[in-house]
């Protein structure tokens, strides 16, 4: 009933659509772990290439944390989840009940935290 009330307002429907688009755009930490790792690698490589190009051209480096020689991908993922994802998806979950996404988010956070606790900077632990 409360969702119906929210959806009766055109302004609220627009806000919900904007939230959906934003959540979809940054939802990588809410995907199954293999997809999350794959896309974290792709996004990191994109940022590394940007930083490399900025350095090559003598431009200010926009994201110095994405220097491929010193970046910790697990730390970057943990920060991203802490600063952008958790609160947004907690709010979305309260509205739409998304247990699978929230479970993936929790598992993925623990995965990145486990790598960081081991002082690893890569997408995956080394082969045993």
Automatic annotation (TrEMBL):
Give the UniProt keywords, A-Z: Hydrolase, Metal-binding
Q: Which GO terms describe its molecular function?
A: 3',5'-cyclic-nucleotide phosphodiesterase activity; metal ion binding
Q: Where is the PDEase domain?
A: 1-119
The Gene Ontology biological process terms listed for this entry are: signal transduction
The organism's superkingdom is given as Eukaryota
**Does the record's keyword annotation contain Protein biosynthesis?**
no
**Regions crossing the membrane:** none
Entry protein name: PDE8A phosphodiesterase
What is the source species? Galbula dea
Gene label = Pde8a_0
């Amino acid at each position: 009933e409360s969702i119906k009330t929210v959806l009766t307002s055109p302004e609220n429907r627009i806000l919900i659509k904007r939230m959906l688009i934003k959540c979809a755009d940054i939802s990588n930490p809410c995907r199954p772990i293999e997809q999350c790792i794959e896309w974290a690698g792709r996004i990191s490589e994109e940022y590394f290439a940007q930083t490399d190009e900025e350095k090559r051209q003598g431009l200010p480096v926009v994201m110095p944390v994405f220097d491929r020689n010193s970046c910790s991908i697990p730390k970057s993922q943990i920060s991203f989840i802490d600063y952008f994802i958790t609160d947004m998806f907690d709010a979305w979950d309260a509205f739409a009940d998304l247990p699978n996404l929230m479970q993936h988010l929790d598992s993925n956070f623990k995965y990145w935290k486990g790598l960081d606790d081991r002082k690893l900077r890569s997408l995956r632990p080394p082969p045993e």
